[in-house]
Design a protein that fits this description.
Blueprint lengths: L3 E4 L1 H8 L14 E5 L3 H6 L1 E2 L3 E2 L2 E2 L2 E2 L12 E5 L15 H9 L5 H10 L6 E4 L2 H8 L4 E2 L6 H5 L6 E4 L3 E5 H4 L2 H6 L2 E6 L15 E3 L14 H14 L2 E6 L5 H14 L3 H11 L7 H15 L12
Parallel strand pairs: 1-8, 2-4, 2-7, 7-8, 11-14, 12-13, 12-14
Antiparallel strand pairs: 3-9, 5-6, 10-11
Length: 312
């Protein structure tokens, strides 16, 4: 039995927006997203790709089409559950009839416990449920119930969230998408590529353009103090910032790690692990990794992370 863990809304947002060549939602064993609210609530709107779990005679009916033992992420949500502590028995008799007909806060935990015996990984219970998630990410709500494979192939992921509602990490296509800029309320860009995007052009207050090639010889180190200052200023102003590069896997990831090392006064190893958790295809080239190691010396006074370990 794998057990249950709470999942923050930002974690589910990042799970939904992972990408390799295509969105990872195209992978059959990547995500099983389950909605245990009433049919009326589900039909009104739900999180994209979520499937409703039905209940009969106080038992949840498992989805026959899903092999939960092979699924990497199984996320369950109800309306607003915020804790794993819930009494599953001993309800007042007056409430028993209501409980048979409608799901109450905590239904996600009840369902999760029923599923946990079938999974290899822990069942994730969405903290704050649909209410909190949909308030934060209204653009990921839908009424669509069935997703065809070609529709998932065409799904365009959003940039991943590094600091909730503050810093996002993405690629050039996402930086040029007006819908993404509007949905995420982007107010500033850090462009770590040679290309020029359509937003904030010639506006030095809202755009930091670090023009470096995607190569082992690219020198990002001289820009790191300015980068950190730019991001700090916008965090103080309450601006939402998108850090991006051409593919969003090397230069922009290195810039994001450098800022986290500065902002939290932490090691490269810890910053790397955090960004990797947010975005699974992180891959700064060896030249950038060596410069991040030098930046670690500036931040901490010594080189702590062994960059010759396999993860780097």
């Amino acid at each position: 039995m794998a057990g249950l863990v709470l999942c923050e809304p930002t974690e589910l947002y990042n799970i939904l927006n992972q990408v390799t060549k295509l969105s990872r939602l195209t992978e059959p064993n990547y995500l099983c997203l389950l909605d245990v609210r009433s049919k009326r609530e589900y039909d009104e709107s739900h999180v994209i790709t979520a499937r409703r779990v039905k209940k009969r005679a106080n038992e949840y009916l498992l989805l026959e089409s899903v092999d939960l033992e092979c699924v990497k992420y199984c996320v369950v949500y109800d309306n607003n559950t915020s804790t794993l502590e819930i009494a599953l028995g001993g309800e007042d008799e007056d409430n028993t009839e209501d409980r048979r007909h409608e799901l109450v806060p905590g239904a996600a935990v009840e369902c999760g416990r029923a599923l946990a015996r079938l999974t290899h990984h822990p069942i994730c219970i969405l903290k704050g449920g649909y209410e909190r998630f949909s308030a934060m990410y209204h653009f990921l709500r839908t009424q669509k119930i069935i997703w065809m494979p070609q529709e998932l192939d065409a799904f365009q992921p959003y940039p991943v969230e590094i600091m909730p509602g503050k810093i996002y990490l993405g690629n050039f296509r996402q930086a040029c998408d007006p819908k993404i800029q509007k949905d995420l309320k982007i107010k500033a860009h850090v462009n770590v590529s040679m290309e020029t995007g359509p937003f904030f052009v010639d506006d030095s207050d809202k755009l930091l353009h670090i023009k470096i090639e995607d190569s082992l010889e690219a020198n990002i180190f001289p820009f790191l103090r300015h980068l950190c200052h730019f991001l700090e200023i916008h965090l103080q102003l309450g601006s939402v910032i998108l850090v991006f590069s051409t593919l969003g896997i090397s230069r922009s990831c290195a810039a994001t790690m450098a800022f986290l090392m500065h902002w939290k006064e932490q090691t490269l190893k810890k910053s790397w692990a955090y960004v990797k958790k947010c975005k699974n295809n992180v891959h700064p080239n060896r030249g950038l990794v060596a410069q991040l190691s030098e930046w670690e010396k500036v931040i901490l006074g010594d080189s702590v992370t062994d960059i010759w370990d396999p993860p780097y």
